[in-house]
Amino acid sequence: MSVPAFGLGTFRLKNDVVIASVKNALELGYRAIDTAQIYENEAEVGQAIKESGVAREDIYITTKIWTDNMSREKVISSLKESLSQLSTDYVDLTLIHWPSPNNAVSVAETMNALLEAKKMGLTREIGVSNFTIDLMQQAIDAVGAEHIATNQIELSPYLQNRDVTDWAKAHGIHITSYMTLAYGKVLQDEVIGRIAKKHQATPAQVSLSWAMALGYSVIPSSTKRDNLKNNLKATELKLDAEDMAAIAALERNERIVNPEGLAPQWDN
Ligand SMILES: NC(=O)c1ccc[n+]([C@@H]2O[C@H](COP(=O)([O-])OP(=O)(O)OC[C@H]3O[C@@H](n4cnc5c(N)ncnc54)[C@H](OP(=O)(O)O)[C@@H]3O)[C@@H](O)[C@H]2O)c1
To answer: Is the CB of 66 under 6 A from ligand 1?
Structure first.
């Protein structure tokens, strides 16, 4: 598996805020950064990487193709624009951000364009995001599971997405959990709080460690250096079977990200 287990999210973060977050994170030891064309922060992410002094080849950069850019031509041209914004010759991973609304562009066309981009050296790996089982099947039919590095989906203790994760596992597709902290909501959870206390850890570390223990990559974001530092320490926290079972029981199918006109018919 190549998608790093732990990375930095940058959704909503712009201008000086994103520059500070990325620079702090790289200084603290983060080596993977998740951005997207629609975040309108690729240039700042690129600037922060440059200013950090960390070598480009030591950083795993993910970007995502926006829904306006799903046709073959636009995948290639918009990805070249992303590379220019990021001040780099390649990204490590390029994802389809959301399935094309109303299937205006087929999954096959976009996946094949991404595969072409990979062959051109614009991206080392390709993948998908917010894909349901049906959409993952279409992506596999188009390019084969061996070319799909990950499906990045909303996944937290409150939205465990088991139908999708079970199917992905059975078909060899790695899962990246976004909003593992449910945008901060699970940090107030009593069960997670109790487990955190037991391990002298923070609730954020418990949630992130839980997801990684299930084999998922995580990309929490933070604007605060202390939170960035503490979150990274989740990689050192080992939960026991009892903790894992207690968090499994927190499932409540509570989805936060469900944009009208973009979200597919979810599996659960
Ligand atoms: N593929 C997609 O469609 C998609 C959709 C959504 C998100 N994503 C990706 O996933 C990343 C993560 O999602 P997210 O940023 O929306 O949500 P998140 O990582 O679940 O939560 C971030 C929020 O939690 C707070 N937080 C972080 N660490 C904390 C800590 N240790 N203690 C207390 N609060 C803490 C942050 O506030 P502070 O800044 O105050 O620390 C921020 O408000 C995004 O940045 C983006 O890269 C992808």
So the answer is: no
